[in-house]
Design goal:
By secondary structure, the chain is α+β, with helices and mostly antiparallel strands. The protein has four helices and eleven strands. The strands form four sheets. It has a four-stranded antiparallel β-sheet, with helices on one face. Strand 9 and strand 10 form a beta hairpin. The longest helix is centred in the N-terminal third of the chain and has 15 residues. The radius of gyration is 23 Å and the shape is flat.
Amino acid sequence: MDVKSAFLHGKVEEDIYMNVPDGLEDSDGRVCKLNKALYGLKQSPYCWNKRFDEFAEKERLLKCERDPCLYIKYNTKSVIYLLLYVDDILIVSRDYNEIQALKSKLQEEFEMQDLGNLKTFLGINIRRTEEGMYLSQKSYIHDLLKRFKMKDCKESKTLMEPGNLIIPNQTDSTESEVQHKPIHELLLNVPNVGYQI
């Protein structure tokens, strides 16, 4: 599910004023008071998250203590997991009817688009078969290799041979930092792509 204009659903709690937008005439020097969050406002992500938390509480979705983007609802027959990532929502349960009921409530509360069965989420490819569901990061890895011009490199069972150390470049060149630091950070922040240091 995709929430359309998610940040615009957030309610601003403090008084925030802005200049009159371009295209509107105002010779008196007045300003506009915001009632709702706007994109680009520092508080917007917080306001949207708080607004979603209110909805989740109303629907008896419990916020996970270890991952604040994960909500769980326990029913007598099943458990529903809802994962919120900015404006994307992933709903998982063994009970199809419970998923549909929650989707309906979400669509009543927020303007949303149902994207159907999940194929990709946060760089993870999902493939369904009769035996179950398979997760892969193949596309993400190929995108990384392409981004860093390593598409034709030779394969290895590990990213680096055991015992190799990452040693920062001793020159003052910032080009090296730009090229190597992002891939290192990207690889370490994605499960099963990075290696242990």
